[in-house]
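Show me a record, fold above all:
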Amino acid sequence: MSRLTIFRTIAVMLGVAFASLAGTAHAATCGITGSASAQPAVYDPFNPSGLTATSITLNLTRVNTSGGGDTRIVNFYLKANPTIGSALDGTSLVPTVVAGSVSSLGTGNNIFYNFNATPPIVSPTSTVPSGSNRFLQINFTGNNAGSDTAQVTFQVSLPANLNLNAIQNLSFDAFFGCNVQGGQDNGKQQTGSFANAVTFPVVVLSALRTYYAGTALDFGEIGNVTTASLAGAPQRTSTSNYVFVQSSGAYSVTLKSQNGFKLFKPGATVANDKIDYSLRFLGDTVTSASGGPGAVTITKSCQRATLSTTGNVLPIQAKLLEGGQGKNPSPSYSDILTVTVTPLIYSDPGTNGCATFGLGGF
């Protein structure tokens, strides 16, 4: 006698921005930082093609010492910051062209290393790169300001489904060996790292994937169920139905009922054509008193679900508030619920850990 049908719609907001950042040096008094200011490449973590090889040119600037010397040669490779860790594994950063008043070795090799991979040997600076010891060597040649920078063109590729946060740019830690020429540190060989030293203008979209898992929220035959009997024997739909979300950023969820949380028989016009029920979703319980037909009655701002296979599971359950006995007979009483899941802008962290909302003894 009754069936409650759930549908969902998905709205998507996407944004891009310009990136121009550099890192902060520590450990060594020589080294490099780099950034680009250009229309960014856009990475959708749900695109099965990932980010195909994209050409990005960075301005790399050497770090000169306070003692009057300058960075002369830098051997460096790139890794993800510990805050990202292995989430960037599989990335490819291949320098193809190095321009400026410099010389270089190591173009054509991927100088990105997976987070737990064995690093290359980069010191002393007389070490040269190879296919089995991949890094980029830049010789800044002179001690004048014109020799402070180099323009390096990279081919950047990202595999699909990287479990990255939605961000406006993508930064990498640089690990290097370098030497100083001139000043009080003349001839000194050093090793070190710069956190977020090299920043690529790659926007990781705030994107999501969602679906409804389970069956229609069905009470079954309720023609012989009385309203009074529900107090001692509540009638609910299955606990196994849920909305599933994976996301790179925060997202919002809204829910509305076409009939205002009433089951209608086809062509319903009078009270005996309608049956009240309540609904539990995202920690809220709503009824016909929560809002009229088509009104949004549940709204939640949710924190990032991640792209992991577990994602966010958002259970949904309905409970009868009226029995079917005494109602006008019909082979089907139904309502339509619309759940809308929308990515939030990358800078919005969301408010609720929505996966923690259970059915709570509903």
Remarks:
- Confidence is low (pLDDT under 50) at residues 1-27.
- The radius of gyration is 29 Å.
- The chain has no helices and 23 strands.
- The chain has two domains: 2-13+207-356, 24-200.
